[in-house]
Amino acid sequence: MKKLLSLLLALSLSLGLAACAAPGGDPAPSQSSPPPVETETASATRTFTDSVGREVELPAEITKVAVSGPMAQMVLFALCPDKLVGIASEWDASAEAYLDTEYYNLPLLGQLYGGNGELNLETLLASGAQVVIDVGEPKDSIVEDLDALQEQTGVPFVHVSATIETMGDAYRLLGELVGMESEAETLAAYCDETYAMVRDIADQVEKVNLLYITGEAGLNVIAQGSYHAEIIDLLSNNLAVVDSPSSKGTGNEVDMEQLMLWDPDVIIFAPQSVYASVGDDPMWQSMSAIQSGRYYETPMGPYNWMGFPPSVQRYLGMLWMCKLLYPDAASYDLEEEVQEYFSLFYHCELTHEQYEALVANSIGKLAA
């Protein structure tokens, strides 16, 4: 019995020593060994202050980004397409000619404000998004809205304000947010320089009397003073003065009599409006712009260049509108400018044929 107990004790000690060995057979550190140095882990966080003063706790490294709407989608697609976990609204069908399929077919998340569909929280949570970013004009209820969604989902929500004048600073803040400061500065500098150039041209020309018309019947206008009218007001004498400018991309509805009373020198029609039919319509033919042939259609691809949504593509619209209305003052080569924009913001090398098709009913019309 004593021999058996001794054998069992020896076996127990042997197994205990084996269990304490580290992988590879090396002995485990003793109790007196110094503790391992602590390193930053994926769970590390930081505090980010957004444009409406909300302090939001974010992961130290952002690799998965969701967007709250099409404005944010366009802004962030330029900066960090590989971080996007989904899109807020489906790209226009024309986008397939410019975007890589991997981006064109991202999951649809829906949108927080406006549009036909609400933000799909189930899809959002399944996407693994580390942050949801809203970009543009802050709604009156933005703080309460984002706080409520953040509490409901456990996902951080942030807002970054951006106008046509402040888009450069918006990109700098977004670069800080997603950890891409250098890339953001490239886009910010482009926005600052383009706006300054167009602003300088606007200050030296006599602005034309103009209407921007939308809608299937051509009876909606983008009113002076609205967020959607920023570049229209900058580059023209926008005749559409109404009591309550609409905040929607569809603009304010008016009647034909009011359009005739305004009687602009130039009309710009939104895509999918009545541009193609007004030349043969007796009612429209009574207006000065139609009689003189000074009516044009906004280029479309992969978004309306003049906005709607009024996002970063409006820099492209500014360059186009400035060249269209004031060709002597706008001495730059528009095709080169458009190709640069597509490279920076859509990651696409635009061909000459694609450019010609985009401007066929505006700059191309002038050349013809």
Report on the architecture of this protein.
By secondary structure, the chain is α/β, with parallel strands linked by helices. Mean pLDDT is 88; it is low at 1-42. The protein has 15 helices and eleven strands. Strands 6, 7, 8, 9, 10 and 11 form a six-stranded mixed β-sheet that branches. The protein has a three-stranded parallel β-sheet with strand order 3-4-5, sandwiched between helices. A two-stranded antiparallel sheet has the order 1-2. Helix content is 39%, strand content 12%. A hairpin with a 5-residue loop joins strand 6 (209-214) and strand 7. Residues 1-21 form the signal peptide. Residues 64-329 form the Fe/B12 periplasmic-binding domain.
Brief write-up:
The chain has helices at 2-19, 70-79, 101-104, 121-126, 142-153, 167-178, 181-204, 230-235, 256-262, 282-285, 288-292, 314-325, 334-345, 352-358, 363-367; strands at 45-49, 55-59, 65-67, 131-136, 157-161, 209-214, 220-221, 237-238, 252-253, 266-269, 295-297. The protein has 368 residues and is an alpha/beta fold. Helix 7 packs parallel to helix 12.
Stretches with pLDDT under 50, minimum 5 residues:
1-42
CATH class of the largest domain: Alpha Beta
Task: Describe the largest sheet.
Answer: 6 strands, mixed
Strands, count: 11
CATH superfamily of the largest domain: Nitrogenase molybdenum iron protein domain
Whole-number mean pLDDT: 88
Total number of helices: 15
CA radius of gyration: 29 Å
What proportion strand?
Answer: 5-15%
Task: Sketch the topology as an H/E string, one letter per element.
Answer: HEEEHHHEHEHHEEHEEHEHHEHHHH
CATH architecture of the largest domain: 3-Layer(aba) Sandwich
- Determine the fraction of residues in helical runs and give it as a percent range: 25-40%
SSE-based structural type:
alpha/beta
